[in-house]
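Board notes (copied after class):
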Amino acid sequence: MKTLNVLIDKYTNYLQQGEIQIAYKAILEFIGKLRAEFIRNNPEYDVSSIYQGYMDMSYFSLSTKTLRNKGLKIAIVYLHEKGAFEVWLSARNRSIAKNYESTLENCIACNSNIFHDKSNPDSIVECRLTPNPNFEDPSSLIGIIDEGVKKFVSIISDCVLKEI
């Protein structure tokens, strides 16, 4: 294991090259545009602010009165290490999440696009939206993510949340 000073020195060297900042800024700007599109095109959702994260994940969440009443929310997440967008069903706390886990196991079994990464305590179920996002075509990428979120919400609604 490298020492903290060695790791920070490497980090500083990467930052001095300037590319990480450009890429990170572009990702966050895209997420801002995506969020604005969700606000404009989906008035049924309350849209949160963007959580920038610690270069692990960046996301914003969507909720409705029904979701809030159940302690649930939908999160549109960019996973920096994977370089991919996912949509998650998340809960207000671990207790609420645990209540829905068993109900959603059948849903996962019936749909190969929905899964749960047991190492992810922040979601109940996830769905990969795009494994290789093309940030150079933001309009198409927004469309892919929007369509994927709608399908995910529809599947989740059919499984347990009939009134979404």
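Comment from the instructor: Helices lie at 4-17, 19-41, 65-69, 94-110, 138-159. The chain has five helices and six strands.
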